[in-house]
Structures are given as C-alpha cells and as structure tokens.
Amino acid sequence: MSSFATDVAIDLGTANTCVFARGRGIVVNEPSIVAFNTAKGEVEAVGQEAYEMLGRTPPNIKAVRPMKDGVIADFEAAEQMLAHFIRKAYGRRPMIRPRLLIGVPPEITPVERRAVKDSGFRAKASEVHLVDEPMAAAIGAGLPISDPAGNMIVDIGGGTTDIAVISMAGTVYGRSLRVAGDAMTDAIVNYLKKSCNLLIGERTAEQIKWELGSASPLDEKLKMEVKGRHVSQGVPRTVMICDEQIREALAEPLRQITQAVLDALERIPPELCADIYDRGMVLTGGGAMLRNLDRRLGQETGLPVLVAENPLTSVVVGAGMILQDIALLKKVAWA
Fold it and tell me: Which CATH fold topology does 8-135+314-332 show?
C-alpha cells in the first residue's frame, strides 16, 4: 500500500455511524438514518438531520435505517449514507477515492461481507478492507491484543452484542448476538404498551433508556414523566414511570447478553480463561453505558469488568489506529 493520506475508517453501526479520517480523528458521528422523498425519488436528509424527522414526516418522506442487526438491510440507503458521510469527512475538498476500513460483526456471512465491500466501492472508495468490530474495539480500548494472553471484549452496539477473546492479534473466540441497544429500546416500547397502555415512539424509548435504564438496582430511585398515546382510546396521555419498571422491561435482553458472555467463558481454552480471570473483560459500545451493567456482569461471571474510557467511539478509534499501522492492518483485516 502506498500513501495513507486519504484513508478513512468507518464504524458502520446499526444506530450510529462514526468516521475517522487519517490525521484528523473522528470527523463524523451521526445516527445511521437516511430520509427518502418518495415523491421525488431522492434523498431528503442523512444522519442527524434525518433522525430529527423520525416519527414526524409526511407520507412522502420515509426515514429508514440502512443497517439491521449490524449488517446492511437496505443497500441503496447504505450506499447513499456512506457516500454522504465520506463527502462530509472531506468537506469542500475535491472528491477523492479514499481507502476504507469498515468494522463488521465477527459472525456475518461471506455474502454479507461482500455486500458491505460492494457498498464501499460504490461509494467511490479505491480499496475496501473489513475488520471485526471487537478487534477494532479492543485496539481502541487500549488492550494489548498482540500479547500471547487472553483479552476479552464485549462490544454492545445498536444491533449486535459482539463478544470476542483475542490473543496474539487473532480472534480465538468470536460471537455476534443479535440482541443489543435496539432490542432494549424495543423492550421498553413493548413494556409500556402492555403495562401502561401507552404507545411511545423510538426516540422517546431511547430517552427513557438513558435516563432511567439500569442493569441492577440503583442507590437512588429515579422517576420520569412520559408522554405518548393511549393504546385503545387514541388520546394523548402522560404517565409517571420509575427505574424499577424499566429494569423489568430490560430483563430479557440483559439476560441474553449475560448468558452469551457466560457461554463464551465456557468455550475458550482453559489457559486463556485463566488470563481473563486475571485481566477481566472490557465493555465497549453504547450499551456499555447502561447504568450498573459492569456491576451485573461482574456478579454473574466473577470477573473484573471495566468500561472503556470512550465506549461509543472505541471501534472507530481502533480502526483508525489499524489504518496507521500497515503490519497490523495485514494481520487483522479481512482480505
């Protein structure tokens, strides 16, 4: 490979997309949403601007998420989104054909990998490389991935929870669980519908998750007023909810994530398991910011659990670091 001056690393997330440009750091961090004008057959908005439209658009404006469960679900929207974010990363400079490094879940199929690569090429990239998101997250979180010892990373994103054990710059164990932040949001929507007869939108559920959500009991009780629509009467309604109710709503997705971590510990070689019991595991991704999740996983596994310093950007920062190290890129990127 020659000059890396135009290289871009992308964390193409189900909920958010982050873009890292060589020499400038993170230049884009916006929701993974595209709003189409179906009447005109063109893109109306991308990213944060499209997110603001969620649940508030006229019939001819359709806001879509190109990513589902960590992989591309809408190819046209994904290409439009990638091209938009790459243009945004380069500002007013003439459009160049950058090399792309894109983070993907470790268990996606060869067909899904090809789809991600094709989208990158159609977004005018000169080269497209893929890297497992947990590997990039581990590098971004500062784990010594090249050591001959086990490093465990749990990356809880929007569509997937990626669990990996890494040793000597290779993935010894990798699993993608399609239960993560979006599943938690959906669980809150369904819980309020059943228990409070209240219909709420995705944005409101996200707000509730961050203001009240927790994985184990809090030291101080939290409450919040929520506005929505009555299920049967169809009129606006306001209810008061507390953190205990939201903990109940999140019980099933949290149980599945915890079980997946326990399964990983059962399946790795004993020597690496001993390393992990000494070193613990590191949590990254937006889901890692859920209150007391580290405490709960620590109680369930008996391991020390640390939350990365910047969990939301660990993947894209790690991918950016890979771009700057050709030898590491050759080791960890998919051909």
Answer: Nucleotidyltransferase; domain 5 (3.30.420)
C-alpha separations of 125 from 4, 7, 106, 293 in Å = 13, 9, 22, 38
What are the C-alpha distances in Å from 285 to residues 102, 141, 153, 181?
16, 11, 10, 9
CATH number for 181-249 (one of 3.30.160.60, 3.90.640.10, 3.10.310.10, 3.40.640.10): it is: 3.90.640.10
Between helix 202-212 and helix 181-196 the angle, nearest 10°, is: 100
Cβ-proximal residues to 255 (8 Å cutoff; 6+ apart), any chain: none
Asked whether the whole model's pTM tops 0.70, one would answer yes
DSSP string for residues in 182-201: HHHHHHHHHHHHHHH-EE--
Residues in Cβ contact with 251 at an 8 Å cutoff, skipping those fewer than 6 apart = none
Residue pLDDT, tens place only, 113-127: 898 898 888 888 888
Question: Running DSSP on this structure, what letter comes out for residue 58?
Answer: -
